[in-house]
Specification:
alpha/beta; Hypothetical Protein Ychn, Chain: A; five-stranded parallel sheet; two-stranded antiparallel ribbon; 6 helices; about 40% helix; globular; Sulphur_relay_DsrE/F-like; DsrEFH-like
Length: about 180
């Protein structure tokens, strides 16, 4: 019994300690907290340009009152790399959002109509836009799910399709990170 209690204490302490090591910013202050990694064996090239395309399909329909973790990944990407000493000018993140994740790009009134709660992603999308992240919605998804321009957040741009963005940006040297 004492061993079980001691193990439980250790696990709780580890969880609390791990949570304390995450910090916000330095680029996106309200979202995407990251942990510092001291002396990694794989050292990033601080001068290299990182052209990254986040392919986001992760739906948050089961938890509509929470920020979509797929959308938040771009914030973590920026915070993690700039926090580790990379010049933000060498980071070129783009997001293509399609499938169920597209509802996270709705203006508040339409999100609330669909889910009954305020859209928790609005602040994140605004901060990503201010940081220079290009955010596209798949035009096919937008048409299929009736997400016209009047329903989308103003920071969101329209693409013909997710496939088009994926093909063209990969041909331009972007690395794809798929979030499902």
């Amino acid at each position: 019994m004492r061993q079980s209690i001691f193990c439980l204490f250790l696990m709780i302490t580890a969880v609390i300690t791990a949570q304390k090591t995450k910090k916000p910013g330095p680029v996106i202050m309200s979202y995407g907290p990251t942990s510092a990694v001291e002396d990694p064996d794989f050292v990033m090239d601080k001068a290299a340009e990182y052209k990254v395309l986040f392919d986001v399909t992760t739906s948050s329909e089961s938890k509509p009152d929470q920020v979509n973790k797929g959308l938040e990944t771009a914030a973590r990407f920026l915070n993690m790399h700039v926090g580790a000493g990379k010049d933000p000018k060498t980071l070129n993140p783009v997001m293509i959002v399609h499938g169920g994740a597209s509802y996270g790009l709705l203006r508040n009134e339409f999100y609330k109509e669909k889910y009954g709660v305020d859209n928790p992603n609005i602040g994140l999308i605004e901060e990503l836009d201010r940081a220079g992240v290009e955010i596209y919605i798949c035009g096919q998804t937008a048409a299929h799910r009736d997400i016209g321009e009047e329903k989308r957040l103003q920071e969101v741009k329209l693409a013909l399709s997710a496939m088009t963005v994926l093909i063209e940006l990969q041909q331009q040297g972007f690395a794809v990170i798929t979030l499902k």
